[in-house]
Amino acid sequence: MAHTRRNIILGLIGASVLGGLAYVSYRPEPVAVDLHTVERGDLIVTVDVDGTTRVKELFEISAPISGVALRSPVEVGDIVVAGETIVARVEPAEPSLLDARSRLQAEASVREAEAALAVAETELARAQEEQVYAKTQYERASTLVDRGVSSITRLEDDFQRLSIANAAVAAATARIDQANGTLERARAALTAPEDAAAINAACCTGLVSPANGVVLSVDHISERPVLSGARLLSVGDPSELEIVADLLSSDAVRLPENARASVERWGGDPLEARLVRIEPMARTKISALGIDEQRVDALFELTSPAEERTGLGHGFAVFLRVIEFEEPDTLLLPLSAAFRTENGWEVYRAVGAAVQKVPVTLGRRNGRFASVTSGLEAGDQVVVHPSDQLSDGALIVERIAF
Predict the structure, then answer these.
(1) C-alpha R_g of the chain
(2) Which of 180, 191, 184 is nearest to 93 (CA)?
(3) By the 8 A CB rule, do 76 and 215 touch?
(4) pLDDT, tens only, 284-300
(5) C-beta separation of 117 from 180 below 8 A
(6) Distance (Å, rounded) from C-alpha 41 to C-alpha 331?
(7) Contact 95/193 with Cβ under 8 angstroms?
(8) DSSP state of 63
(9) Of 331, 44, 92, 40, which Cα lies nearest the Cα of 227?
(10) How many CA atoms lie within 13 A of 158 on its CB side?
(11) Are 97 and 193 in contact (CB under 8 A)?
């Protein structure tokens, strides 16, 4: 009897061992996954773009006359005061040397102008004599008319002759002025270079700064010939900066009025900026991939204090994160956890040692997260980057990060 009971016990133990081995052999292996805990937070949707700083009021000083710009009295970075600091000097151009033929022609022009002046003076003298005679005749006729000896017709004729004589004197005077101008122009062509240098020294034009600030650029340091309107240098106040960003037109139209922006990658802590305006006209620009894009400039005003952006100057590169949409205290889901199915968006939610496929409704999203309006609650754990090995009810084990 005792022997039989022992055999039964040993058989039961053997059957249990064999059953356990069979269960272990056929039980599915759990899938290693990365889990993320769903939490509430602020969802911020941004438009990221590169930008360039520039001085708000940039003044470019140009040559007012054609001549020679002397060596620049200022250098880049010099502080200037409006209406006081001389930033450039320009002298009129010196006349070129005359060859033998040109000099003979110029001398002949002078003699010709002198002769014309003499003729004009002679004509003036004759006109003045005729004017005196006509005036005398008119006065005599007027006396005779008053006495009743002469007729009114004779008085009118004498008055007409006097008027003609007065006009002839005026014309002769004008011809003298014209002859004097011609003579001066002819003599100017014979001006010697040494005389012109003295005149130019007296006529040197000193240009003063139109605004307070610093010298941002000098086109040429050394003395050089310039034409009227040629740019000499630029002046501005680097403490008054704005940022211009090159946006896709489709991104620009989504930005709200006075949109806030974070200025990064300029060499210091992030700064704050505000959208001022978007230019009304876009332009076609070819991207690095060879695609035609419509892009438009957006201007931003730096709102951070000047002492927080020490060293930031004109033409510096920056990176902008412009806030397009902001939703505070919302349920945030990593985009890497959601996947598309026929029924819409779904996720794998961890339930104990297994996962459950859960449909979710997503709202606005940025590059990393999306807001969840239904399907999950704060504290739920979801699988990020789910693999094809997962299915509804599959066993999982959390991957340990080293």
Answers:
(1) 48
(2) 191
(3) yes
(4) 998 888 889 999 999 99
(5) yes
(6) 6
(7) yes
(8) -
(9) 92
(10) 20
(11) yes
Nearest to 179 by CA among 116, 126, 121: 116
Instruction: Match 């931003």 to its residue by tokens.
Output: 300
Residue 230 CA, chain-centre distance (Å), reads 20
User: Structure tokens of 232?
Assistant: 């000499």
Tell me phi and psi for residue 351, to 5 degrees. Answer: -125, 100
Encode pLDDT of 42-61 as tens digits: 999 999 999 999 999 999 99
CA 44 to each of CA 327, 334, 337: distance values in angstroms, whole numbers, following the listed order: 7, 13, 19
Token readout for 241 is 């900066």
44 CB contacts (<8 Å, ≥6 apart)?
Answer: 323, 325, 326, 366
Q: In this structure, what token pair is assigned to residue 179?
A: 């002859």
* The one-letter amino acid at 193: P
Q: Are 33 and 386 in contact (CB under 8 A)?
A: yes
DSSP structural state of residue 395? B
For residue 297, give the nearest of 285, 280, 312, 274 by alpha carbon. 280
| Signed CA dihedral, 36, 40, 45, 48: sign only | negative
What phi, psi does 169 have (nearest 5°)?
A: -65, -45
Angle CA 83–85–87, to nearest 5: 110
Give 200-245 pLDDT, tens digit per residue.
Answer: 554 567 899 999 999 999 999 999 999 989 999 999 998 899 999 9
Token output for 162 = 């006097």
Residue with token string 């009295």: 73
Residue count of the chain: 402
C-alpha–C-alpha distance, residues 50 and 290, integer Å: 19
Helix then strand then coil, % of the chain, to nearest 5 = 35, 35, 30
What whole-number distance in Å separates Cα of residue 106 and Cα of residue 176? 21
Ramachandran angles phi, psi of 225, nearest 5°: -75, 145
Q: Tell the residue number behind the tokens 């794998």, with chain if given.
A: 348
